[in-house]
Amino acid sequence: MDLSTLAIHQEYPQGGDSHAAPISMTSAYDFVNAQEASDRFSGLVEGNVYSRFTNPSVSHFEQKLAKMENTEDAVAFASGMAAYLALAITYLKQGDNVLLASGIFGTTTHLYRQYFGEFGIKATSVDVDDHRAWEKAFKTKPKMVLIESPTNPLLKIANISWLSNLAKANGALLVVDNTLLSPVNQRPLDHGADLVLHSTGKFIDGQGRTVGGVIAGKKAMISPLKDFLRSSGTCMSPFTAWVLSHGLDTLKARMALHIQNAKIIAEWLSSHPNINTVYSTFNQAHEQTDIISTQQIGHSPVISFEVCGGKESAWQFIDSLKMITRCTNIGDTKTMVTHPSTTTHGRYTEEEKQKYGISDGLIRLCIGLETSNDLIDDIEQALVQSDKKQLREVV
Ligand SMILES: *Cc1c(COP(=O)(O)O)cnc(C)c1O
């Protein structure tokens, strides 16, 4: 059976006859007698103990997500960053090296470099698609490798199975942040990754209502993360889990429309005379088309492009949009626009911006569920304004 179908029909742990999965807003649970309390606490029998670490709504979400990622188990957290925190504290110790793919979410790099750096963990960034650089970096005997594929905003691709072989040969764990594609469009565990991570407030929620995180993988890999959750309290609320469980039911249908729209917009932008470069996984000229076709089931709704005329033109374009919203999030019904060089990547030095291709004319769109003609109308009129601005500057 298709994984999405299985997820839709995942049974709610505390049954009843409610057709839609209900929500279990409770902090604690009744035990029949002292023996049962003792057995549940020790883990001898399965059952809920306290919602810091067990709750039916949260478990329901975790089990559905695990099914969709084609694996055994998952553990939910208060946010994507809380999931990254759990990952490091569970799987790293003082003196360990970590490799981070360049282009990984900025706050992830900051967390690992700045905070874990203070505890003697060394994080090194490696160009995501540079095989020689990876081979060289593995000489530092890293314990863990964190990657995102495709990267955001430039849609570079990591070869997950190649990296997983390299990681296995060197005794390192490979963790893939799959937020951008969702389990509908890529299943990294099928390509040899050890763990897959999501910031769930993006496509899994799909309507920008919640903040959350989840990690999925084999039971033996998830169990230590659950132990950390029990002691740290970085848990997802039952309400968030309930929203996300219902979000998973419509994920496949929503992703199809996100991608259909993104393809139309990417093609329209590519044929526009005043746009230098379009970055998207649809782009036939993408250097990694072969990897994309073997490792991805579908494409990314995030696309980026460069306007002529640098920051002035880019800002004029952004400020001229009438419908598309100025927002740095991804994975919403609404199409959103971002100027990476002065927001998400604003903390990069000029040198880093150049190295990683974050130019002043770069604009990122995360395509939503509006009708594509309406999106094109808005983009077209904003480009006219941005071109006028550029002409005025030249004169
Ligand atoms: C948003 C995001 C995160 C951070 O997750 P939060 O839920 O905001 O803490 C991590 N990785 C990626 C790829 C993201 O887009």
Automatic annotation (TrEMBL):
The keyword Transferase applies. The keyword Transferase applies. Its cofactor is pyridoxal 5'-phosphate. This is Aminotransferase class I/II-fold pyridoxal phosphate-dependent enzyme. GO terms for molecular function: transaminase activity. Pfam families: Cys_Met_Meta_PP (PF01053). SUPFAM superfamilies: PLP-dependent transferases. The lineage of its organism: Bacteria, Pseudomonadati, Pseudomonadota, Gammaproteobacteria, Vibrionales. Belongs to the trans-sulfuration enzymes family. Keywords: Aminotransferase, Pyridoxal phosphate, Transferase.
